[in-house]
Amino acid sequence: MFPPAPGRTVAMAEQTETAPGAQKFIPPRADTLDDLRAAAAGCRGCELYRDASQTVFGRGDAGARVVFVGEQPGDMEDQKGLPFVGPAGRLLRRAVDDARLDPGHIYLTNAVKHFRFEQRGKRRIHQTPDRVHITACRPWLVAEFARLRPEIVVVLGATAAKALLGPTFRVTRQRGELLPWPDSAQHPEDFRRVPVDAEGAVADAPPARLLATIHPSAVLRADDQDKAYEGLVADLTVAARALAGR
Ligand code: SF4
Ligand 1 pocket: which of 55, 57, 128, 141 to mutate (most atoms <8 Å of CB)? Predict the structure, then answer.
C-alpha cells in the first residue's frame, strides 16, 4: 500500500521504490481502446494518481498508421485529460504538418499516464518520471499496442525510449533511423500479438517500423529552437516517406 496521501499542495519529493503496477487495473475483457481508457481512469498502479488531476490516456483511431509515444502528460494535458494539447503538443502538430504526415492517421499516447510534478507556490513544475513509474505504467502501453496496428511507431524522447526500448537505447545516437518493431523493443514478445475478434483470439501483429526522435518539449527548451525544430521535422519526414513507400 502507499503511504497516506500528502495533500495536493505538498511537493512529490518522496520516492516510492516500488509500485504495484497497472496490471491489475486492466480488465480481462477490455476489447477496445475506449474500454482501456475507462479502466485507466481508476488506475492506482503507482503514486502519481494522487496529486495529478486525472489519467491522461492515449487518443486517436485504433486503425492509425502511426503511433506516437511521448513521456507523460504536462500541466495542460492533466487539466484537460487529453495528451499533447499543451505547448509541446502544438509544436508537434506543426512538425507533423511540416513533415507531411497525415494527422488523421496518428494515435498519440504517453509512456506514463499521470502528470508528475513538483508544486512550487502556485506553479506545478514538470518532473521526469522515474523508472518505477515507467515500469508501473507499462502495462497500459502494452495493452494499447495490443489494440493498435501501426505501420510506424514514433518514440518521442528518452523516457518513451526507456519504456519501449530499454535503458540502453540512446535517442541521440539512433534518432531518425527506421528500426524493426517490435524486435527493437525491450520485450518484443509483449508487442507481437494483436486481438482479432471479440472472443479474445489473437494473431501476429503486422510488421511495423520504429523511429526515435526528440520530444517536442526539447525543442521548446533548446538554445537554438529553429535548428532543433528542423531536426524534429527531418526525423518525422523519414516516417512520412516510409509510409508513402518512398
Ligand atoms: S502513472 Fe500509470 S501506473 Fe501510475 S497511477 Fe497513473 S496510470 Fe496507473
Answer: 55
